[in-house]
Design brief:
alpha/beta, FAD/NAD(P)-binding domain, 3 domains, six-stranded mixed β-sheet, 18% strand
Length: 452
């Protein structure tokens, strides 16, 4: 029989899921894949749809292959495309990586009568599970019957959609570079926005506000510390875990190493750590330690760090510690109100543009994603306890409002953050996609009954 898998979302997560299903298929006649994506571009999503050369990958080429068991796949593609030597230590433009992802699911030149996949440029608004599969409801009223559905919807929107702050990826092009700009947030999105402004000839001041005023750390060449599960205090409280991490870093630095070696050595175990972290420790981590973790774990390329440092030294970029309170559009721009750290009063800088660079943290209801809201409304899904995403089990099967795992609906990428936390970067998503493809296709042959 032919197995039909529908992937909801054609960004990086959905594309990687499709690529791993295709890699494991036995014959085209035994597997059909449909990607449902409303955007015209498949493979790029928000992360890789930028057209600016200054927006680089935050991970080196050697860690960006779509296939973890073939680490040079991306570098070989770069060489074939004439886009450089594919040096494993390079940080290439994100738009280049978007092309790579799109190429993974591009039609084959010698395609057989049964296509390897189909792309529907529509919005998915509903999923209905029945005994033999799942019906995928589309915005035009049609229904797509499938055996399995994979949610690859990326980050879910939150209540900031009603804010007067601007979307960092949908800013107007007509702006005066001499006018000041206010950025809320100082993470990797802020780095992208500053680089974009510099590339456009910005001469007006840029003020970036965040609660801690911390910037992402810069990458360096590292030698990841070899850590086994036995070395790490899995299941301990957050306090003990952080004490262990600080002690390990100090010992490694005393021996001539770099703190990055420890963080990179811990990376393969972070999802296991999260799953076994007590619920209260998870809450405390998000409240008190996640910003520090993110600035050390999600680093920026050295070239980006150098440009940011230069902008700071010249006075063009100013980093401010403060608690964002609100933003209000005016005739001349946007006024941002924030309370400086350690102060009782508030300040109200105004910029021609005020851009939201805080990234995504939690889901707020109702969510603007019609599919996810439908799944929540009819009880097919529930939010994870920390509202980071939907709730999934250890196999990435969707959990309903009664705590039952779905035999037909699965997730991949940021929508599963509540289960894995560290699932926003390609090196993590590709492992998840490989695991899910193995689960759905079975081994050695395709079997719906074996995986349902």
């Amino acid at each position: 029989m032919t197995l039909h898998v529908t992937i909801i979302g054609g960004g990086a997560s959905g594309t990687l899921a499709a690529a791993h299903l295709l890699q494991r298929r036995i014959t085209p006649q035994r597997l059909r894949i449909t990607i449902v994506e409303a955007r015209k571009d498949v493979g790029c999503g928000i992360a890789y749809s930028t057209d600016q050369s200054s927006h680089l990958l935050n991970t080196r080429v050697n860690n960006m292959s779509a296939f973890p068991d073939d680490p040079s796949h991306f570098s070989r593609w770069l060489e074939r495309q004439g886009l450089g030597s594919g040096n494993d230590l390079d940080f290439v433009p994100r738009r280049t990586y978007g092309r790579y992802l799109a190429d993974l699911v591009a039609p084959e030149a010698d395609a057989v009568s049964v296509p390897r996949l189909r792309i529907l440029h529509q919005e998915c608004v509903a999923l209905h599970v029945h005994e033999h599969g799942v019906e995928v409801g589309l915005a035009d009223g049609s229904v797509l019957p499938s055996h399995f559905a994979i949610l690859a919807t990326g980050f879910c929107g939150d209540d900031r959609r009603t804010s007067s702050l601007e979307n960092p990826w949908a800013r107007p092009l007509d702006r005066d570079p001499a006018e000041p700009v206010v950025l809320v947030g100082t993470g990797l999105t802020m780095i992208d926005m500053v680089l974009s402004l510099l590339e456009a000839g910005q001469t007006g001041t840029i003020q970036a506000i965040s609660r801690r005023g911390l910037l992402p750390q810069s990458h360096k060449v590292t030698k990841p510390l070899k850590l086994s599960v036995a070395d790490i205090p899995i299941g301990s409280s957050l306090g003990y875990m952080l004490h262990w991490l600080r002690t390990t870093i100090r010992a490694h630095e005393a021996a001539g190493g770099d703190w990055r070696d420890v963080i990179d050595g811990l990376r393969p175990h972070t999802q296991l750590l999260w799953r076994h972290l007590p619920p209260e420790s998870r809450r405390r981590f998000l409240r008190h330690a996640s910003t520090i973790w993110d600035t050390h774990r999600h680093r920026m390329p050295p070239s980006s760090a150098a440009r940011i440092a230069e902008a700071q030294a010249s006075g063009l970029l100013r980093i401010v510690k403060g608690h964002f309170q609100r933003a209000e559009r005016t005739a001349s721009g946007t006024t941002v109100t924030y309370r400086p750290s350690g102060s009782e009063g508030s300040l109200t800088p105004e910029g021609s543009h005020a851009i939201d660079c805080r990234g995504f943290r939690r889901i707020s209801l109702p969510t603007p994603n019609r599919l996810l809201q439908s799944l929540l409304d009819n009880g097919t899904a529930r939010l994870d306890p920390l509202t980071l995403g939907l709730d999934f089990d250890h196999r990435d099967a969707l959990i309903d409002n009664e705590g039952q795992s779905s035999p037909r609906i699965f997730g991949v990428g940021p929508v599963t953050r509540g289960t894995h936390f560290e699932i926003t970067a390609v090196p993590d998503i590709r492992v998840q996609a490989a695991r899910l493809a193995e689960l759905l296709l079975g081994s050695p042959g395709l079997s719906v009954s074996a995986t349902a």
